[in-house]
Amino acid sequence: MKIGIVCPYSWDVPGGVQFHIRDLAEHLIRVGHEVSVLAPADDETPLPPYVVSAGRAVPVPYNGSVARLNFGFLSAARVRRWLHDGTFDVIHIHEPTSPSLGLLTCWAAQGPIVATFHTSNPRSRAMIAAYPILQPALEKISARIAVSEYARRTLVEHLGGDAVVIPNGVDVDFFADAEPRPEWQGRTLGFIGRIDEPRKGLPVLMKALPRIFAECPEARLLVAGRGDEEEAVASLPAELRRRVEFLGMVSDEDKARLLRSVDVYVAPNTGGESFGIILVEAMSAGAPVLASDLDAFAQVLDQGAAGDLFANEDADSLAEAAVRLLDDPRRRAELRERGSKHVRRFDWSTVGADILSVYETVTDGAAAVAADERTGLRARFGLARD
């Protein structure tokens, strides 16, 4: 099958949607399909062979964050060229309502279109206001996927219709087989995310650290991600700052090794999450997970059976839960075992097969419609059957 996938966000700025699309494309290629991904990217940026640049993106505030999107006449021309050259059996658009390549592709594409909705935003005034503009494009979509029940709810409430829920995927064995790094082990908390994006929750974790460090004198925190490191620790007493180590941006391999090394992975995100792929990666690596009790996180963690939850934006609740986990090796071992079993449902072997089933459904449907149209034309003009 020839599959075209559209990424709305800049390929050269890491993010959950980009990682999902990258991993989906590589899974589909491994199982024998021909895949091309269209994504915003600087033209001089080295790209995987399956990625086509649609030009440079611009930063736009979106869903409590800053997304790098691509929209305009040049982008529209590149979309049309990519569609013409690709002759795809199916187009898979991610976030088709964002003002980026997905919407342009919806307008320009013919044939079966699958759309995946990642965003969970129950009060999106922008989406409601834009609905009259979006409607003609959305009507061309053959099948809709939501990455979680909360993304599906946002879609239903704002745009109508429905979607099948297929979660984000992860290569479970990649994380499970990573080698821990000895220097990252020993009473260690871990955090991975953009340091200067408040909704990722690092300020809440920093507020909890004095109590955690007071009750667990040997504990420390490892932070991986881009942002202003000095500003991140500015609220901590000077004598505690040395117990926070910033690793900067890390490779996929080092991310897996970090998750394999920590005693507790902390996800203090405060909102705007529709899934939580980092929780799945952490469970895959065998890290006990402690997360804020966002609805999406609770669902990923099987309502607390596969990971501990604390009250969202409550630093005292976070600190109490973290100390309890650090002091309870039996509970950590229990979470490792439960998480490792629970996470198998998110492996690409399962998620990829579910997405392929959607592709096959829409392409079979398109083929049936085309056959009916040919039959109608033959009858109309008195032609014999092929």
Automatic annotation (TrEMBL):
Recorded GO terms, molecular function? Answer: glycosyltransferase activity
CDD domains on file: GT4_PimA-like
Keywords linked to the UniProt accession: Glycosyltransferase, Transferase
User: What is the protein named?
Assistant: GDP-mannose-dependent alpha-(1-2)-phosphatidylinositol mannosyltransferase
The answer to whether UniProt assigns keyword Glycosyltransferase to this entry is yes
Give the matching Pfam families.
Glyco_trans_1_4 (PF13692), Glyco_transf_4 (PF13439)
Reading the lineage from the top rank, the first entry is Bacteria
Give the UniProt record's GO annotations in the biological process aspect: carbohydrate derivative biosynthetic process
Source organism (scientific name): Streptomyces longispororuber
What are the Glycosyltransferase subfamily 4-like N-terminal domain coordinates in residue numbering? 14-173
Question: Do you know which InterPro entries this protein is assigned to?
Answer: Glyco_trans_4-like_N, Glycosyltransferase_grp1
Positions the record marks as coiled coil are none
